[in-house]
Amino acid sequence: MTYEQIKNLGEGEFKRLCGVKPKLFQEMVAVLKPELPKAKQRGGQTKLSVEDQLLIALEYWREYRTYFHIAQSWGVHESTVCRTVHRVEDKLINSRKFSLPGKKALSSAETEWSVVIIDVGESPIERPKKNSAVTTVERKRDIL
Fold this sequence. Notes:
The chain is mainly alpha-helical. The protein is built from 8 helices and no strands.
């Protein structure tokens, strides 16, 4: 699904599909446009537009599908998807515009945390028995 097919979706639907609002998507595209290769260029360049490259990366991050499955959806090679995701990721990180808050901001007194603890320590685990008589006898018979 290319950017041309989804650009007319409503804000809520766009966010459900991509994981970001259209405004943030456009900010990311503005950062990536000068950095990423242009669409339809050949000679080692990608055939995907900058918007489509960003969509591939967002699809990988949001759905965590394998490169193979994304490649099949977009009609490109698996290695192209891998390079695209890493390239987009690196450019967005280097821009420092889309970073998460640091430790100090997260540990400030203004932040209220709620924690849920789940005890799964007593869940029984079914394991095969070691050294059972049946398997030992069979092994001895095969050897003789």
